[in-house]
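Quick one, T. Sequence first:
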Amino acid sequence: MSRYLWPALIVVIGLLVFGVIAAFVTPGPIGPDAPTLEAIEQARTEPWTQVMVAITSFGKGRVTAVIVLVLAIGIGMQHAGAEAAFLLIANLGSAVLSPGVKALFARPRPPPDVVTAITHPQSFSFPSGHALSAMVFYTSLVLVAVRLGYRKLAVALTVLAVIMVPTMGFTRVYLGVHYPSDAIAGFALGAAWVWLAYLGYLVIGRNTSGAISPAN
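Structure tokens:
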């Protein structure tokens, strides 16, 4: 039972955080959205803008899809079909979840009177797809590395995740294409989804082996 406790707890917390934000979502900014965007816009510099554009481009669906597919094939060739399936399901699921939830809330992107956007995506704003997919992508990589016994790789990926996940969300706010509440909701929903997928992996795929949890 303990192997399911931490994943289930993270799923519940993620859904609660997402639900609270979603309950207050409006077409415009909520809470500290507007002052945060204003402060970030005033702090923009051209060099940092180029860095943010470069980082955010890595979060595009095609890039992560290719990486996930290659890794899943490689993992599957190591006779780790359950882990390969988990990696594919978690990341492909996030690719479906993001546009579906965006369409449900239909929140417009921040308008010019709130912030000047540097790029101009055409989809809805809530939640941030980049934040959601980054949470799922990096978390799933860490979980697979741990399950396959690559402890040093798991530590390195954890460090990378701690850096890249919040950075990916921040780039979207910096570029003026998302409210901060979009990014936070994306993180929360992404965490809920990837750990829910991991629970499914434990129950169906490899329920006889040890599980990872934040405690270890």
